[in-house]
Amino acid sequence: MQKVKAFLGYFIAFLGVPIVLATFMGNQFFSEALVKATGLEVSPWIIGGELQETLPREGYRTLIYAPVFMGLIGETNEGFIQIAWSPAANLPENISEEFDVNKDGKMDFKVTLNTREKTGTLDAYSADVISMEGPFNYKTKDTLKTESLAVRVTIKRALKP
């Protein structure tokens, strides 16, 4: 009887492994449904905040995300603003754009990119602009299919709109 119970236990466990693998790895529908049912959300530190503004350009668009200052408890003194250019396939070789983060009428910084070599520079017009990370490949949150080129500009909370 012990051997039968052991065999049944191992057999049921063996049958459960493919179900778990199919649910989480092979079938995106079930995993997305599970995440939606539990109310989980991806941290803004990962996805770059909520989309705040879309600026249409000739053949592409500039996506400006809300500044992120989220910390473990409350807000931090430094955060970032993510800017993406999409779709990556349509981008010109060189992009140079100025941004006014706090909407005070004065430009806060300028981002210059070479999209072919994936290099970029940051020209800070404000002491509250610290540095730039990127450019890097990014899939936009809205579709997760559109390949974009993005940068993250580290800023101080004083620039928060």
Describe the structure.
The protein is of the alpha+beta class and 161 residues long. The protein has 2 domains: 2-38; 44-159, no CATH class. The protein is built from 3 helices and 9 strands; from the N terminus they run αααβββββββββ. Strands 1, 2, 3, 4, 8 and 9 form a 6-stranded antiparallel sheet that branches. Strands 5-6-7 form a 3-stranded antiparallel sheet, with no helix packed on it. Strand 1 (51-56) and strand 2 (61-65) form a beta hairpin. Helix 1 crosses helix 2 (28-38). The longest helix has 25 residues, at 2-26. It starts with a helix and ends in a 5-residue tail after the last strand.
Q: Topology, pairings included?
A:
Elements lengths: L1 H25 L1 H11 L5 H4 L3 E6 L4 E5 L2 E3 L4 E12 L7 E6 L9 E6 L4 E6 L4 E11 L7 E10 L5
Antiparallel strand pairs: 1-2, 2-4, 3-4, 4-9, 5-6, 6-7, 8-9
Any key phrases for this structure?
alpha+beta; 2 domains; 161 residues; elongated; 3-stranded antiparallel sheet; 25% helix; 6-stranded antiparallel sheet
